[in-house]
Amino acid sequence: MTKINEKQFIYIVQSLKEDTKCKIGKTKDLDERLKAYNNITGKSKENISEYLFACEVKNMTKVENDIKNKFIALREENKKEIYFYNSVLFEEYIKYKKSRLIYKGNNCKNNKEKRSNKNC
User: Fold this and answer.
1) pLDDT 10s digits, 4-50
2) Could you tell me the pTM of the whole model?
3) In which domain, by residue range, is 37 found?
4) How far out from the chain centre does Cα 92 lie?
């Protein structure tokens, strides 16, 4: 159960060596979540994950479910997460989120520009 004053985030994360996939997720702690992605057993040390987008929201579970329902056709088979395959879909996702979500303040960060040579 989420406490009233507890921060909640929705994010898109991508591994450097898997630039055709992005994962959408939710977390209460962005730093710890990214650390968990980068400490997966068997994962190459060169294949680090970075956030492409992160935003504080009021109800992360509802927001995540809305996004996953909207983009259900883009899920990788047999996976719970959603993966985008190109920059057009990434922009469509961000546009959808911003048009439908209630953000807490102006706490959204889009890091896509840093990785402009990537597909997602």
Assistant:
1) 678 999 999 998 888 888 889 999 999 999 999 898 766 677 789 99
2) 0.76
3) 9-109
4) 14
